[in-house]
Amino acid sequence: MSYLIAFVVGGLICAIGQVILDRTKLTPGHVMVIMVVSGAILAGFGLYQPLVKFAGAGAAIPVSNFGYVIVEGVLRELKMQGAFGALTGVFELAGSVIAASIFFGFIFAAFFRPKS
What is the pTM of this model? Predict the structure, then answer.
């Protein structure tokens, strides 16, 4: 049953992104930012954590999870270290993802050129 729930919730998150992409003149980059910011806002209000517990990978895999992870890191470090934790919390949970994104982005940029 958990696989079905994950499939449905993940599919709904992806379908929302696809509807935004199809019905507006926004680029995929814009939709990605909307999804990340939506995940961050839901995490800030405490709504994304219950969704992750309910749907598992269905909520943890889509790009909206990245906003959730960033906010969770900031909130956790803010409680532990105060104001300084708000600055370092972004890198606490999401540091490896950010580092991998920079690394692979550099590798792909070095080997591939965009078409005009």
Answer: 0.77
